[in-house]
Design a protein that fits this description.
17% strand, 9 helices
Length: 311
């Protein structure tokens, strides 16, 4: 029995597994089995008001569980499979566990662009609830070693797919009328979505009053154990530095991780969590961050860093 056969067998029996996607590694369960989904929340220590994304193999599968408007359908046809999650109303007799949706009347759906998870979903013919394979609120995993560090001896069966290509969680949107609301930033940006709507609304800056209807909306999230800082006023030789480009790197930094010497934002996005994981394991005091442009994938990078540094 190969890894995918074994993974399918475990999922059908109500067990959880770890597997790669193009964004980050996921902790997966059959989204229709209450007891299986509960295992995800328990292992992650995830609050039960924070809903999960249900991963599907196609738009046709998604429409069995969610209600898609013409705009929603057009968006999914353009960006699926890929790093886009859409929040839509649930079908009346939706078979997805209410634990997955945190008892909301909406459901978050995504069709991932990775051969391993896609094949598994197709074989078991049911959506997978699959949040990031880490302890809730901590750094997201983009490599099998990150998953093993997070769960240690409690790590479920895991399929090694190598480093994740994109390295940031999916963009999450909700279509309301003729407008698109971005609920979580990702590599699919406002610019990419503008052709599909009358207006694209960005996440509210008043995050304390934001209703949690999708993952990634908590104030503190994606966080390392060490504190993050965006200015160098208090930098010392005992600190680490997350660099972007070759200028303004402190010469006395104890540890340095380079996101992209050429300041390529896609490269920086793919390496962000690996860099934070590396620095978090170094014998340093704090992690200082180089300025990263607030454009394209840089919007999502800055969002992750802001939430990771929230006190």
């Amino acid at each position: 029995m190969n890894d995918i056969d074994y993974a399918c067998d475990l999922l059908k029996k109500g067990e959880i597994i770890c597997l790669p996607t193009e964004t980050v590694y996921g902790l997966a369960a059959d989204a229709t089995q209450d007891h299986a989904v509960k295992k995800i929340y328990a292992l992650k220590g995830r609050p039960d008001f924070n809903p999960l994304i249900s991963h599907v193999s196609s738009l046709e599968m998604a429409e069995q569980y969610g209600i898609f408007s013409p705009i929603s359908r057009k968006i999914c046809k353009s960006f699926w499979p890929g790093p886009l999650t859409i929040v839509v109303p649930k079908q009346k007799n939706c078979k997805i566990s209410p634990i997955v949706t945190a008892n909301l009347n909406t459901i978050a759906l995504r069709s991932p662009d990775h051969p391993i998870i896609s094949e598994i979903i197709t074989r078991i013919d049911t959506p997978l609830a699959a949040p990031s394979a880490n302890i809730s609120g901590t750094l997201s995993p983009t490599d099998i070693s990150h998953v093993q560090d997070a769960f240690g001896d409690n790590t479920p069966f895991i399929i090694d797919g190598g480093p994740c290509q994109i390295g940031l969680e999916s963009t999450i949107i909700q279509v309301i009328g003729d407008n698109i609301h971005i609920l979580r930033h990702g590599v699919i940006t406002e610019t990419d979505l503008k052709p599909f709507a009358n207006h694209v609304f960005l996440p509210s800056k008043d995050t304390e009053k934001t209703e949690i209807i999708a993952p990634g909306q908590l104030l503190r999230h994606y966080a390392p154990q060490k504190s993050l800082y965006f200015d160098l006023d208090n930098f010392t030789k005992d600190d680490g530095f997350l660099a972007f480009g070759t200028s303004n790197i402190p010469q006395n930094a104890k540890s340095i991780y380079q996101l992209s010497e050429t300041q390529d934002l896609n490269e920086a996005a793919s390496k962000l969590f690996s860099g934070l994981h590396m620095l978090d394991h170094c014998p340093i005091r704090h992690i200082f961050i180089a300025p990263i442009p607030y454009s394209g994938p840089g919007i999502a990078i800055n969002d992750r860093l802001k939430r990771a540094s929230y006190k």
